[in-house]
Amino acid sequence: MAYHTLRQEYMLMPPVTRAYTTVCLLTSIAVQLDVVSPFQLYFNPLLITQKFEIWRLLTPFFFFGTFSFNFLFNMIFTYRYCRMLEEGSFRGRTADFVYMFIFGCITTVICAWFVNLLFLGHSLTTMFVYIWARRNPYVRMNFFGLLPFRAPYLPWVLVAFSVLLGNSVLVDILGIAIGHLYFFLEDVFPNQPGGRRLLATPRLLYSHILTHFVLNL
């Protein structure tokens, strides 16, 4: 009974969120069981360009660490805000959501090429949080029941939390910057005089084959 309930809840997750969080979870399980090593997954421009280990363009987005509080915290935020975006402002727009993913990943990789970042999933999650927060400016929130604030401040609250934990805020700032770039190009600039939508989703992503693939993940 519990299995069927869990499976039903899993299948109720929107397709892109379900696919991404599943890959992230399986990646961490594989590392935990020593099937693969984090050294095979991290972002390394030299290994990508000189040894053609092109999988390193993707795998840094899938690994959030081995099972720990930090892993749990990141996975909860990834699942929560990825799902709220997909079921909220991207409802019925799977191709647009996939394109947002692609934009976020490509932009993060370009930035990571010039700074020392090994794993990029946290930045992608921060981008999700930032976009959701900007699109829901009147939502009231609180942090662990202690600090009340409105949604647009959430990314900065997370930056402060990283500082308190002694973590580098570079990944948070990068995610915020990329999220802001997407929000500006998609939500702000098209509504300005003379503005237009620069991030129009390519027709390829609207094709029947890709849509059928994504919806059945």
From TrEMBL:
Biological process terms in GO annotation: ERAD pathway
One Pfam family from the record: DER1
Topological relation to the membrane, as annotated: Multi-pass membrane protein
Stretches that traverse the bilayer: 20-41, 61-79, 100-133, 153-185
Localization in the cell: Endoplasmic reticulum membrane
GO CC annotation: endoplasmic reticulum membrane
Alphabetical UniProt keywords: Endoplasmic reticulum, Membrane, Transmembrane, Transmembrane helix
InterPro entries given in the database record: DER1, Rhomboid-like_sf
Major subcellular site: endoplasmic reticulum
PANTHER family, per database record: DER1-LIKE PROTEIN, DERLIN
Similarity-based family: Belongs to the derlin family.
Known role: May be involved in the degradation of misfolded endoplasmic reticulum (ER) luminal proteins.
UniProt name for this protein: Derlin
Organism expressing this protein natively: Daphnia similis
